[in-house]
Write a structure and sequence with these properties.
Elements: H1 4-8, H2 14-31, E1 36-37, E2 44-45, E3 50-58, E4 61-72, E5 80-93, E6 96-109, E7 114-123, E8 126-135, E9 138-145, E10 148-155, E11 180-187, E12 192-208, E13 211-222, E14 225-231, E15 237-241, E16 246-251, H3 253-258, E17 277-278, E18 287-293, E19 306-308, E20 313-317, H4 335-338, H5 352-362, H6 368-382, E21 384-385, H7 394-400, E22 402-403, H8 405-418, E23 423-432, E24 437-447, E25 451-453, E26 467-473, E27 489-495
Parallel strand pairs: 17-27, 21-22
Antiparallel strand pairs: 1-2, 3-4, 3-16, 4-5, 5-6, 6-7, 7-8, 8-9, 9-10, 11-12, 12-13, 13-14, 14-15, 15-16, 18-20, 18-27, 19-20, 23-24, 23-26, 24-25
Helix pairs in contact: 5-8, 6-8, 7-8
């Protein structure tokens, strides 16, 4: 049995932090300076050089500062511009002070489809670095963590210089209210293709330090993550908001530096807790029925464990476990399952250390479910329950032997895939007795004839029915929770 202190630390910060970080990347990538290639005139206008200081606020409280710099820079005979981002956050997570820093640069050519980038995310002893280049739509990059370098190569499409390019419209006067644009690109932290869609909502005047500022209100969506930004005439960010209570607001340099350090940082995770109405849940429940409101209940995923009911109800039941004779997945017969045996930039299942440990854990066991149980037990016993404010990387978790739900889930996934067990990662909510609320959480799912939820963070070989899944897949798919953060409401109707 885990001690109450350890159990308080089971609800990790990885999912919320992931979106704080990605918000910074979105602002840096899409708004921090502008190359305008006007579609109707063919003119090229270099971005306005300068710097922007943004305060990061949650619930109106300052938790950090983002510093954006844009300047012209030629490389290899190509005219271009460089953007630099330095985002620092300071908060409390379960009463422990935590700090996070996202820093990096991105260079873009003005008229050629070329770019290069480097980012690093670090918190305490944990750091993930991403760097690479994009030439003619081909991204060649590398992810570094815990002394391991993982190469990545993928097609991401054009970044600049086309009629459908977002940069052809923002913040050009051609981008009027009602107009929309989209462009292919990539998520620089997970190195996955991503399409950004922008829509100009309206013109609006904001007051900044007592001065009225004319802005365009633009909504940008990447996957299921949406931010709304107020842009001035140079394309600079005056304000940006996410739907889950995070705001970026422009500060003067003097004000930003003067208030850069928050002496009493707010509690981060409880801001996003969901306090339900109705029946009080309990840990180890075998069945739970909840009514979902505040969001479209059809956005809640369904599978063998979680099913949609009538009247916006969701029914979660503890899985009966594996099928008697689980089929062996292959790319031909079950491509949707077999793809969850693949490695990626943060789930390094082909790393020699991961493969060796997986072989030691499962020994001569051949049954996939028995292998999953051995890995769940090892991860639960050997990873210290500690809040980590960073992006989870399997090799980093293996090296540090500490983390919260994100770290447990990513390491389990890498070990299970290395052992031949198809595994995906769920993100959603779980009941916390200590908080008397549902808190954001991550856990793995293994395919053993059916998808079975397991939870190595909580030490549950089969996850209890107080888990409510909101997204599934990989770390990059955790963006699915953005639809629900700060909006979802739950009424618990039944608990067994």
């Amino acid at each position: 049995m885990l001690s109450p202190t350890a159990r308080r630390r089971l609800i990790g910060g990885a999912i919320v932090v992931f979106w704080l970080v990605m918000m910074g990347v979105l602002v840096h990538r899409e708004f921090g300076g502008r190359t305008i290639i006007a579609r109707r005139t063919g003119k090229v206008v270099l971005p306005h050089p300068g710097e922007t200081w943004l305060g990061v606020l949650i619930g109106g409280q300052r938790v950090g500062t983002a510093h954006l710099v844009t300047q012209p820079e030629d490389r290899s005979g190509l005219a271009g511009f460089m953007q630099r981002l330095d985002l620092r956050l300071r908060a409390r997570v379960l009463d422990a002070p935590v700090e996070l820093r996202l820093a990096g640069t991105m260079w873009r050519a003005v008229t050629a489809p070329r770019a290069s980038f480097e980012f690093r995310v670090n918190s305490a002893r944990h750091e993930v670095q991403v760097e690479g280049t994009v030439v003619d739509g081909l991204l060649e990059g590398v992810v570094r963590s815990a002394g391991e370098s993982v190469p990545v190569s993928l097609q991401v499409g054009r970044l600049l210089g086309g009629s459908d390019d977002l940069f052809a419209l923002l913040p050009s006067p051609l981008f009027a209210p009602g107009e929309e644009a989209s462009f292919p690109g990539f998520d620089p932290l997970t190195l996955r293709p991503a399409t950004a869609r922008a829509r100009c909502l309206r013109l609006e005047t904001l007051t900044l330090d007592g001065t009225p500022v004319a802005t365009r209100v633009v909504e940008v969506t990447v996957g299921k993550a949406t931010i709304t930004a107020w842009l001035d005439g140079d394309g600079g960010v005056v304000q940006a908001q996410a739907p889950f209570g995070v705001t970026l607001r422009r500060f003067s340099r003097a004000d930003a530096i003067a208030t850069r350090v928050v002496t009493e940082p707010p509690e981060l995770l409880t801001t996003f807790n969901v306090t339900p109405t109705g029946v009080r849940p309990r840990r180890d429940a075998s069945r739970m029925v909840v009514r979902v409101s505040g969001v479209n209940a059809r956005e809640v995923p369904a599978d063998d464990t979680q099913k949609a009911g009538e009247d916006d109800k969701v029914v979660v039941s503890v899985s009966p476990g594996p099928l008697a004779a689980p089929p062996v997945p292959d790319s031909g017969s079950q491509p949707e399952v077999a793809r969850f045996l693949a490695c990626d930039a943060l789930v390094q299942c082909d790393d020699p250390r991961i493969r060796t440990l997986a072989a030691v854990i499962v020994r001569l066991e051949r049954d996939p479910w028995a292998r999953a149980l051995l890995i769940e037990d090892w991860v639960n016993r050997n990873i210290q329950k500690r809040t980590v404010l960073s992006l989870p990387s399997a090799v980093d978790v293996l090296a540090s032997r500490e983390g919260d739900c994100g770290e447990h889930t990513v390491l389990f996934t890498a070990l299970a895939r290395a052992a031949g067990v198809p595994t995906r990662m769920a993100a959603g909510l779980v009941w916390s007795e200590e908080e008397q609320a549902f808190a954001y959480h991550a856990w793995p799912e293994v395919f053993v004839g059916r998808w079975v939820w397991t939870d190595p963070t909580l030490g549950q070989p089969i996850a209890d029915a107080t888990h409510l899944k909101l997204a599934t897949g990989g770390v990059g798919d955790w963006q699915g929770v953005a639809v629900f953060l700060g909006r979802i409401r739950l009424e618990v109707l039944e608990v067994e």
